[in-house]
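Thread amino acids onto this structure.
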């Protein structure tokens, strides 16, 4: 993932691929294709902070190595508000205790 390019995507609204999985205890809940805002992409600290636009409660921090690529989604752009997708190398689990990540199984 190009760190400098992703740093320019601060405040873009993205959808995650794969979609985050939601859990309440051991029970998997229905998946939502949430919008996430890239709050900060910090190349110096090698991390990206996301904010769940639907819940405002889930704010995972991902490493740049957790992100495979960024793809634009120009059909959803409104004015200056840019949209895109983050293709992840990890699965994001949204739990009662906060976000948890696990690596995707290699192909």
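Threaded sequence (107 positions):
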């Amino acid at each position: 993932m190009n760190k400098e390019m992703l740093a320019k995507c601060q405040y873009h609204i993205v959808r995650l691929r794969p979609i985050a999985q939601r859990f309440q205890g051991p029970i998997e809940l229905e998946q939502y294709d949430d919008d996430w805002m890239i709050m900060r992409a910090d190349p110096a600290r090698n991390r990206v902070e996301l904010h769940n636009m639907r819940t405002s409660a889930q704010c995972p921090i991902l490493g740049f190595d957790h992100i495979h690529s960024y793809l634009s989604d120009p059909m959803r752009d409104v004015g200056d508000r840019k949209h895109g997708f983050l293709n992840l190398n990890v699965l994001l689990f949204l739990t009662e205790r906060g976000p948890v990540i696990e690596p995707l199984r290699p192909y």
